[in-house]
Predict the 3D structure of the following.
Amino acid sequence: MTSQRSNKSAPPPAVLAASPATSATRANADKRDSSAPADARAGEGNEASGSIPPVSSDGWQERRSYERFEVTWSVDCVTDETFLYASIANISEMGIFVRTIDPLPVGMQLTLRFAPPGSADPFVLRGTVQWVNAVRPLSDNLNPGMGVRFIDLSADDRERIVETIRTIAYLRESPSD
């Protein structure tokens, strides 16, 4: 799915199904995400826990506090000036990775609107762009986009996000028939 920006009169996002994730695909996506400079990835680490993030054999350091789950959901990213139609590539309790060839700048605040499969009400949440994985023509950058951290979550929104994550995790761990 390609993303595009347009004016502010937009229909609600379409809902796409979550795609199965494996440890291998999640690890590969995580490595691609790591191409952003460390300073552009602020807020992704384990600062609050005080723990030292694990380091892989290739020297890549895991900086995440919350497990991410691969999904393919449509998302509208709205700023004061722009609508960005894109897709969510993964979600955690604290944020999402928005796959787009036209990411917003680091520090930009935006409103996110997305609906997981089977959800009666879409999420409408505030977020801040924490890091950007820019398009680099003629390179192996297969995952351009931006990491968005949720901000100002109400208790109800936080509980809905956590419940959505738990449901995804449960469905991924359940044996298929």
Q: What stands out?
A: The two ends are 30 Å apart (CA to CA). DSSP finds two helices and seven strands in the chain.
